[in-house]
């Protein structure tokens, strides 16, 4: 087989697979703009008399602005806290060469073995007793669950920063707080991007934990989608418009941060 | 150098450490303790020994969920890894649009499992049915309404979601293979299969350990997709482990019993992860 024929075949294979992968997106996008009749008469074709009214109805039923706001608040605050707390802890562990630090690091790493399902029952009852089944409580839980992997990743990055740097700064009279926040933390930026991306993707999409913790006023996009879907299963046109609204923020984020997302996800799993 | 006795050391550690203790360690220990009692979420009156565990192993719903999850995990591991590696080999070829393809294949991975399940519910229930009716293929109608199509529905959804993720891992290793070696082998007259078998395959072997265990532990812990695609139905035939535990504890309010199941679940998932650590260590030792 000549090289050119091979190139052509590969190109066609890529095109076919790419379209196949995109097909589900095409289906929900086109059907979200059809009337119930339109979906019934042709589910695969383009909308004949496209309508946006599904979107206005779904927007209202999803309480979209509020659920978007809840999702953004929870994700942003949790991720900032995880990045700060984990980099600080990793710094303490990495720059202290004692058995205590080894044990603490082992504790964080060992905790990664514990699946969420194994702690969720006592966790929700404890937080329930403390009146913490709300957004602040959820954010604190994300800190506890997210710290392990983040510390593990940060610890590797800090090991690559020579300790002589800290020592020089100490000689200049800087305290640990200043050394960490003005010298170390900025140098960790590439790792912070990775840690942030991994946690954003997880927290933004999480359903089970918030479904056990949040009151209705705190519903995030996945939670609101679940309840919305229960109301509209028979009305696919509205349900699909709701799903489109739900994935839109993710698509926009992916569009702008694609390079970092792919790098972050790769680094997080290969390391 | 931060001294263990210094205030700074503990201040730096405190936020993450307190979080871990209150959110993971304490609930885990309490849960372990409760699983041996008749705890109902508020109080417990007595120790019940292993009876929650014995009951779990006699609970046909739990056992069915267990086997369903194992079957699902096996099929997913094989298909996601074969397809993920295939996609990775495709997009690392020098061709137009390779980067766009990467972007497209990975995209589903960013969408939450809950929304993914609803998207595919529409495809299986409405689109499959429409195509089946139009082309008179009865195998395409009635999807998700019996255990077999429910199973394959979950598998197809997972392939669409996870292949792109696993592809990224294989790409990381494939790009580490020096192009000259492959070209030299080609000039020497090797077949594509020989190049795959003797060059590519050994070079991406470490990626297999990572990817196999990632898919394994992911498919064991799955919940959202299960909830939104089949909701465990019909008649709980597609209920997976996670959903069984959630329902035992929060729908049927048997908290101690649910926790015992959750501890069994922990032992299985932890054993899988420890096996992974063991295998990657062994491989690293082998290489060095």
Describe it for me?
The complex is a heterodimer of chains A (271) and B (288). Helices cover 80% and strands 0% of the residues of chain A. Chain A has 271 residues and is an all-alpha fold. Chain A has a domain at 62-232: MetI-like (MetI-like fold), CATH 1.10.3720. Chain A is globular, with a radius of gyration of 24 Å. The model of chain A has no long low-confidence stretch (mean pLDDT 93). Chain B has 288 residues and is mainly α. Chain B has helices at residues 7-34, 51-58, 60-91, 98-106, 113-135, 147-174, 179-187, 192-221, 224-229, 241-251, 255-287. In chain B, helix 3 (60-91) packs antiparallel against helix 8 and helix 3 crosses helix 10. The longest helix of chain B has 33 residues, at 255-287. Chain B: The chain crosses the membrane at residues 12-36, 72-92, 104-131, 151-174, 195-216, 262-279. Chain B: It is a multi-pass membrane protein. Chain B: Residues 66-276 form the ABC transmembrane type-1 domain.
Short description:
Chain A is mainly alpha-helical. Helix content of chain A is 80%, strand content 0%.
What tags apply to this protein structure?
heterodimer; A: 271 residues; mainly alpha; MetI-like fold; 13 helices; B: 288 residues; 11 helices; 75% helix; 0% strand; globular; MetI-like_sf (chain B); MetI-like (chain B); Multiple sugar-binding transport system permease (chain B); UgpAE/MalFG_permease (chain B); transmembrane helix (chain B)
Q: CATH H level of the domain at 62-232 in chain A: which superfamily?
A: MetI-like
The beta-strand count of chain B equals: 0
SSE order of chain B: HHHHHHHHHHH
Q: Report the helical percentage of chain A.
A: over 70%
Give me the oligomer status: heterodimer
Q: List how many beta strands of chain A DSSP finds.
A: 0
